[in-house]
Amino acid sequence: MVETKLQGEALQTQIERLGPWFHNMTIGGYRTAPQHFLGDYPQVKFDSFRDALPADMTGKSVLDIGCNAGFYSLEMKRRGASRVLGIDMEDLYLNQARFAAAQAGLDVEYRKMNVWELGALGEQFDLVIFMGVLYHLRHPLLALDLIHQHVAKDMLLFQTMQRGSRDLSDVADDYDFQDTAHFSDPSYPAMYFIEKNYSGDNTNWWVPNRACTEAMLRSSGFAPRAHPEHEVYLCRRIEIPLTHEGPRAVYPATGPHSHPVAR
Ligand SMILES: C[S@@+](CC[C@H](N)C(=O)[O-])C[C@H]1O[C@@H](n2cnc3c(N)ncnc32)[C@H](O)[C@@H]1O
Q1: The pLDDT of residue 262
Q2: Taking CB atoms and a 6 Å cutoff, what residues make up the pocket around ligand 1?
Q3: Looking at ligand 1, which atom is closest to the CA of residue 114?
Q4: Candidate from 32, 65, 68 with most ligand 1 atoms within 8 A of CB, to mutate
Q5: Are 224 and 233 in contact (CB under 8 A)?
Q6: What rounded mean pLDDT belongs to the chain?
Q7: What is the rounded CA–CA span in Å between residue 23 and residue 145?
Q8: Looking at residue 100, what is its pLDDT?
């Protein structure tokens, strides 16, 4: 269905009707979330890492997981990506995303899908965007494992909220059972569990420190190639060497085109 582009009061009314918005976008001169608690978000975030991404995405496919109103999906389409699929589990945001894309005249597909269903997608993408979702998940490592196994072909653009130490120190390959000092070192990889709320949001579950963020990415088969902003990593997908025990995780759904798992 081709949506007619709205203007003036009709446009403003529709933007308000589709709210509340998390992404502050400018549509036909109107801003969708002018009072955003993080400022002009995610434009300010994007400005800090936009040059880390290829300026020309011609011929590339992009999967935007937790796309919200599609700010990053639209930016990738504007860079020439041939296929952009945005997924989110909230209709509120998907309706905003479809509206914003139609108003911009950009061809982006949006689907209601949970990150746990990635195995059923049956498709791999040159760039997977996984921004601002990890800390909303009760099972963050499983999400990274699913992305690696099922949908990531080459690059991962990743962002997580981080708290705690930003220091990195050498982590030994092994420690003696009696050796516990490193667990009190703030630079040791650690993730804080939020049982109640953080920032008034009961969907914030896990907040890693920097060392933990980078260790989780490496451990899931994503080698950081650029770190343009303290929360943002551009990673390359690499194969994970299997241990003698075999695969390390249980994958709940397997699509027809997922990467094969060694047995
Ligand atoms: C903080 S917003 C980040 C939006 C956008 N990626 C960004 O960086 O600006 C988190 C988004 O992830 C979506 N989300 C949270 N858990 C999800 C899940 N399990 N599967 C799919 N989307 C999820 C939310 O609906 C929301 O749109």
Answers
A1: 46
A2: 22, 42, 66, 68, 88-90, 93, 114-115, 131-133, 136-137
A3: 20
A4: 68
A5: yes
A6: 93
A7: 27
A8: 98
